[in-house]
Amino acid sequence: MPTDPIARFRSWFAAARRARLELPEAMTLATADRRGRPAARMVLLKHADAAGFVFYTNAQSRKGRELRETARAALVFYWHPLGRQVRVEGRVREVDAAEADAYWATRPRESQLAALASTQSRPVDSRATLVARWRALARRYRGATVPRPPHWTGFRVAAETIEFWTQRPFRMHDREVFTRTPRGWKVARLQP
Predict the structure, then answer these.
(1) pLDDT in tens, 164-185
(2) What domain range includes position 27?
(3) What is the dihedral of CA 163, 180, 44, 7, to 10 degrees?
């Protein structure tokens, strides 16, 4: 069995891209608050390597607050047409400002403006109010660089466990789980 789950993940992710799946980078992010109340939502993977799985969001949103409070998260990738799923669990830390700035610079200008306009996860009286804020910011920054708000940042999930699931007939699915140890990754096969 291969002993590098990050290499396997990257291989599976590349296969999902080659298969032209819509949004192969979409992943479920699960968090919990201090009292253990869970929440899950979809986010987009922006980078994966040995250090972890990176996504970006408003740190003042519910997910951002929960990530800062508990410093733990779980991710799930599901590529139905390929019959594959990857689950990741681990500790979370914010990326540094330079990494967040570098990614911010690659975002479409309209998305940068949206991140400035939205106080994510907070109530708004109407969609028209949000659109008006976006338009006002578009006028304000016409011809200028859109600054990254300090609360908009990236989070890295440093994997402690990574499970690879492959669909098989009769629900006899293959499951392999990699667990990080001080000496590297330990792998075990799980029953479906």
Answers:
(1) 999 999 999 999 999 999 999 9
(2) 5-108+150-190
(3) -80
Q: 44-94 pLDDT, tens per residue?
A: 999 999 999 999 999 999 999 999 999 999 999 999 999 999 999 999 999
Using CA atoms, how far apart are residues 154 and 76, in angstroms rounded to an integer? 18
User: Which among 190, 106, 118, 189 has a CA at the least distance from the CA of 152?
Assistant: 118
Query: Residue 24 pLDDT more than 60?
Result: yes
What residue type is 124 in one-letter code?
Answer: V
* H or E stretch at 158: strand 152-166
Task: Give me the torsion for CA of 174, 179, 180, 183, rounded to 10°.
Answer: -90
Give the total number of structural domains in the chain.
Answer: 1
pLDDT at residue 6 in the model:
96
**What is the CATH number for 169?**
2.30.110.10
C-alpha 150/C-alpha 145 separation (Å) is 15
- Residues with catalytic annotation? 171
